[in-house]
């Protein structure tokens, strides 16, 4: 059994690097022109359907255009597994994003 597990572990492909939530294509033109970068953290309200219903920046990048773009992207792209109440019914929830980094390509 040990040899089967060892063989399976050796045959497994290496983990893939996750893609960034923010890409160069998402960069606001004003931020590109001014070479603005920063980190944003936001509180999100998640609907019972798993979509972002509201976004509030709690740690600003220092640039309103990047903060606004972060919330816009979260509202348009993010999908969550809805929280459930004690009866299993989907309910509204609140989550905090990890730091979202806006950085220009080198």
Summarize, please.
This protein is an alpha+beta fold and 106 residues long.
Kindly describe this structure.
The chain has 106 residues and is an alpha+beta fold. It is built from 3 helices and 6 strands; from the N terminus they run ααββαββββ. Strand 3 and strand 4 (90-91) form a beta hairpin. It has helices at 2-11, 29-34, 64-77, and strands at 38-46, 52-59, 83-84, 90-91, 93-96, 100-102. The strands form 2 sheets. Strands 1, 2, 5 and 6 form a 4-stranded antiparallel β-sheet that branches. Strands 3-4 form a two-stranded antiparallel sheet. The termini are far apart. It has a domain at 39-106. The model is unreliable at 1-18 (pLDDT under 50). It is 28% helix and 26% strand.
Sheet bearing the most strands, described? 4 strands, antiparallel
Could you give the distance between the termini?
48 Å
Low-pLDDT regions: 1-18
Oligomer: single chain
Series of H and E elements:
HHEEHEEEE
Q: What portion of residues belong to β-strands? A: 25-35%
Report the mean per-residue pLDDT as an integer.
Answer: 85
Summarize the SSE layout with pairings.
Elements: H1 2-11, H2 29-34, E1 38-46, E2 52-59, H3 64-77, E3 83-84, E4 90-91, E5 93-96, E6 100-102
Antiparallel strand pairs: 1-2, 1-5, 1-6, 3-4
């Amino acid at each position: 059994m040990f040899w089967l597990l060892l063989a399976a572990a050796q045959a497994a492909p290496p983990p893939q690097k996750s893609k960034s939530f923010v890409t160069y294509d998402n960069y606001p033109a004003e931020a590109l022109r001014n070479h603005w970068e920063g980190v944003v953290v936001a509180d999100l309200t998640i609907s019972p359907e798993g979509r972002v219903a509201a976004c509030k920046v709690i740690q600003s990048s220092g640039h309103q255009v990047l903060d606004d773009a972060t919330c816009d992207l979260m509202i348009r792209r993010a999908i969550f597994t809805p929280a459930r109440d004690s009866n299993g019914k989907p309910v509204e929830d609140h989550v905090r994003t990890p730091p979202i980094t806006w950085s220009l390509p080198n």
